[in-house]
Amino acid sequence: QVQLVESGGGLVQAGGSLRLSCAASGGTFSNYAMGWFRQAPGKDREFVAACSRSGGITVSADSVKGRFIISRDNAKNTVYLHMNSLKPEDTAVFSCAADSRWVSQPASSGLEYHYWGQGPQVTVSS
Description:
Radius of gyration: 13 Å
Distance between the termini: 40 Å
Largest sheet: 7 strands, mixed
Number of helices: 0
């Protein structure tokens, strides 16, 4: 079973940047596609970005394209979310997730992910 621990959240001004990290343990990290999701107060959880097991294939939500980049370092068992040009509407609790299915295309549905981290709070002030 994989355990996921995120770090890197906090308070940032609009236009600023943050990098979230998600460290995995308890499994073979390169066997999992990884994704980032977020949930704002009063809203449903939404997909942010995902990458394949190698990191060679990435997908992202339209709302973050051109601003957020997902990457992974399999040697460090860590996936990252680089967030630039942050907006107040990006304020949410962010969670990383691991998908153990052997597929080539990373999923954007949270239903496909089997393991979840607790998630750091990201607050963007205007």
